[in-house]
Design goal:
This protein is mainly α. The chain has helices at residues 2-8, 14-17, 19-66, 72-102, 135-152, 159-181, 205-223; strands at 109-112, 116-123, 191-197. Strands 1-2-3 form a three-stranded antiparallel sheet. α4 runs parallel beside α6 (159-181) and α6 (159-181) packs antiparallel against α7 (205-223). The chain is elongated, with a radius of gyration of 41 Å. The termini are far apart.
């Protein structure tokens, strides 16, 4: 029996039989770890590097997001526009009511000697008394200006432009109110003017707001600032 077992090659001990499988297992474990590590490293590297482009994209689009319709920045600029317009309109309306009630059909009031005085007059023309034969045309122009400003407000993201357009809107509304509600009739009403500098045409606060808003728009255009907040250089 001993000779037969030697020929067949039966192992002398159980440890010898498990030696080779155990060695194979030990060799497979490092291979599996290296494969796992190798598969994990690219993912980790890609995951760590993916944050930078995402952050850069977010930073690059922050300004565009601020210019989207309904954005907080856009709403603030629109609020400024209508606040300035309401203030200019209210001052013009109140001043005209006082002038009609206290100054019309009375002697002018001297403010700074002969250089500046308050004198109530009715003006059927444009600002500063020009074009009295085209009252209806000026009424239509004032209404068109209001519509254009209201449409432009949706793309407004510049604070200086909001102030300028607010002055224009308030002044146009002030004079348009006179055109509609004052005599001699609807759309033909005469505007109340009362500020009379020496050697100059008589005007009102609405005319002043329109002129100031127009000057500011010219200055902004020369600087290359657009209503949407972008700056261009020719």
């Amino acid at each position: 029996m001993a000779e037969a077992e030697r020929i067949i090659g039966t192992p002398d001990s159980p440890d010898a039989a498990g030696a080779e499988p155990e060695q194979t297992d030990r060799g497979a474990v490092p291979g599996e770890r290296s494969d796992t590590d190798g598969a994990r490293d690219p993912g980790e590297r890609s995951g760590s590097g993916a944050g930078s482009p995402g952050e850069g994209a977010a930073a690059g689009t922050s300004d565009e997001a601020g210019r989207q319709p309904g954005s907080p920045r856009g709403r603030r600029r629109i609020a400024v526009l209508f606040t300035v317009a309401a203030l200019a309109y209210a001052l013009d309306l109140i001043s005209k009511m006082i002038v009609v009630a206290k100054l019309e059909h009375h002697e002018p009031i001297e403010i700074v000697g002969d250089w500046l005085r308050f004198e109530a007059i009715r003006n059927a023309g444009a600002a500063f008394g020009f074009g009295e034969a085209f009252t209806i045309i000026f009424t239509v122009i004032a209404a068109a200006v209001i519509v254009v400003i209201a449409r432009l407000a949706r793309k407004l993201y510049s604070l200086p432009w909001a102030i300028a357009l607010g002055l224009l809107l308030g002044g146009a509304l002030g004079n348009l109110t006179d055109r509609i509600f004052r005599s001699p009739g609807v759309f033909e009403g005469a505007v109340v003017d009362f500020i009379a500098p020496k050697h100059f045409a008589v005007f009102n606060l609405a005319d002043s707001a329109i002129v100031c808003g127009g000057i500011l728009i010219v200055l902004l255009s020369f600087r290359g600032l657009d209503p949407d907040g972008t700056v261009h250089k020719d």
